Amino acid sequence: MLPSRRGHFPAIRVLGALVAFVFVYTSLSRVFHGSRSRNAPVSLSPLRFGSNDTAHRPCPYIPGLDDVLVVMKTGSSEADTKLPWHFSTTFRCVPHHFIVSDLEESIQGYDLHDALRDVSPAIRKDVPEMELYNNLREHGRKALDDYDFTKYTQSKQAKKDGRENPAHKLDKWKFLPMAHQAYQHRPAAKWYVFMEADTYLSWSNVMKWLNNFDASKPQYLGSQMQIGETIFAFGGTGFAISNPAMKELVDYRSRHLGDLEEYTKNGWAGDEILGHVLGDMGVKLVWGYPNSQMSLPQELSYTEAEYDKRLWCYAPIGWHRVDSEDIDALYSFDLTFNHNKSLLLHSDMFNQYVLPQIEAAPERDDWENLAEEVHGIGPDSPHVRTAAACRSLCMKDKNCKQYTYGHGICRTSSSVRLGEPVARSSPQLWLPTHSGWIVNRVRAFSKKMPACREGPWVLS
């Protein structure tokens, strides 16, 4: 069985072990550094990659991009804050894009199309999650004043409460209609690439990925997830559908609209619903991992090897859970990387994106580098009272490459992650944290990585 929905690491796991891991990791994260708010005003990196003036840099020529329609899915509860992140970055050099939401409006000159406009009146009347949409249709953005969305994103129970978020519950209804509308908007596109407001895609790599597939045949590509018996492309990492598959999907939906609305009503996730329909049509998913990533570059362990595929050797398409700082840093890096000379690999992301940031500031206060092995808890564990002592503990282990110290607890790790600033959006949970890396060992780790004999793409 594939990972059930919304885990960060795509590997086959026994459900009980997965639940235990999530519980322990979440609990420890709250003890150490609080819950991360993706909207927190943090600074990802002390470095800038290239010129700060990315908005005026010439767009690189990317072969094939003119044949792609980029479809962005968002919602009224986030669109006004998250979409502007993309207007000067993700969309700046994309010739054809189509944005769908639950409210037709214009933001900074970009038109947002109502994905739910052709949902049947009976569904809008009888389905509880349509209350938000009906209010938006009647009152526009003023309808949002009646909803407190922050309680679903900033509380200690955010992960649990998020499922009750009315905007989240409405989201599943967008997937099939947005595919239909996207095809109608540009029926001649060879590829339709779908993304969300917290997705970053590297367009040069996206096109090199798509060029491995025959766009004249039905194709469905993305990072694999599973709910029940359905294997589908996870929406957050982005996915692609070829023109013939989209045309067939539109025809299928037109013939079975009532049945598909009933299936959607009983479903939970819109990307699963879309994958289920494509599967019924005979269009099977081509798995996208490790090219597509649910974690950010600074969160990844670059020794990861799932499904016998070493992350190090594969080319990234994009990343999920990005915020404005991530997009700014990734876009700036993307513009400086010579895509014409070489293919961007995850190993390049480590050596040219992660490692320089570690070297620039190898000791950081208020930073969480995701070290894993816990010291200072339990009768047989040495009690560590300072960050310096934590570093010394790491130095004594020749395999240790980084450490984190906070509130009397030391964590070390033999793998390397950059991590991110400690979130301060939940003051009741936040505790001072210091992170550090043993830089010579981090450099040696990169140099000693075995040569790649696989990759760079997953093609079947």
From TrEMBL:
Pfam families, alphabetized: Fringe
EC supergroup of this enzyme: transferase
InterPro entries from the UniProt entry: C1GALT1/C1GALT1_chp1, Fringe-like_glycosylTrfase
Annotated compartments: Membrane
GO cellular component: membrane
Membrane topology designation: Single-pass type II membrane protein
Pathway stated in the Swiss-Prot or TrEMBL entry: Protein modification; protein glycosylation
Gene3D superfamilies on file: 3.90.550.50
EC number: 2.4.1.122
A GO molecular-function descriptor: nucleotide binding
Keywords: Glycosyltransferase, Membrane, Nucleotide-binding, Signal-anchor, Transferase, Transmembrane, Transmembrane helix
Location of the Fringe-like glycosyltransferase domain: 185-283
Highest taxon of source: Eukaryota
PANTHER family, per database record: APPLE DOMAIN-CONTAINING PROTEIN-RELATED, BETA1,3-GALACTOSYLTRANSFERASE
Assigned protein family: Belongs to the glycosyltransferase 31 family. Beta3-Gal-T subfamily.
Name of the protein this chain belongs to: N-acetylgalactosaminide beta-1,3-galactosyltransferase
Organism, scientific name: Eremomyces bilateralis CBS 781.70
